[in-house]
Amino acid sequence: MINRERVLDRFIEYIQISSESKNEKVFSEKLTEDLEKIGLEVSRDNAGDIIGGTTGNIIAKLKGDESREPLLFSCHMDTVTPGINIKPIIKDNIIYSDGTTILGGDDKAGIAALIEALINVKEEQVNHPTIEVIFTIAEEIGLCGSKNLDYSKIESKRGFVLDTSGEVGTIVNKGPAQDKIDIIIKGKPAHAGVAPENGISAINVASKAIVAMNLLRIDEDTTANIGTIKGGTATNIVCPEVVIEAEARSTKIDKLDKQTKHMVDTFNKICDEENAECQIKVTRVYGQFVVDETDDIIKLASKSFENLGYNVEIKSSGGGSDTNILNCNGIKAVNLAIGERSPHTLDEHYHIDDLVKVSKSICEIIQNA
Question: Which residues form the Peptidase M20 dimerisation domain (predicted)?
Answer without folding.
Answer: 182-272
